Amino acid sequence: MSTVGSASDDRTANNAVRHQYRVLSDEEKASMVAIKDKGAELLSLIEALGGSRELSIAKTKTEEAVMWAVKHITA
How far are the Cα atoms of 27, 49, 67, 69, 73 from residue 23, in angstroms, in the given order? Predict the structure, then answer.
């Protein structure tokens, strides 16, 4: 399976649900990458703390926050 970068204009190639996308500006692409990078950084910090129900919720909420922020940019 080949992959497509999330900031690539070819990102529609591997999405079976959304049939139309708008082309993002370079600024929007940079914002999306920055949000995903910061989310990944936070997830790494959380994972380094160990495991618990609270940390599981924190990871889920971090993933959700990144998803909604990216959704805002790409909508």
Answer: 12, 39, 18, 17, 11
Sequence-ordered alpha helix ranges (H) in 20-52: 26-47
| CB-based contact 13:6 (threshold 8 Å) | no
pLDDT tens-digit profile of 2-53?
A: 666 777 767 666 666 766 777 899 999 999 999 999 999 999 999 999 999 9
Residue found under tokens 């703390």: 49
Angle 31-45-72 from CA coordinates, rounded to 5°: 25
For residue 43, the model assigns a pLDDT of 98
Domain ranges for the chain: 24-74
Residue type at 21? Answer: Y
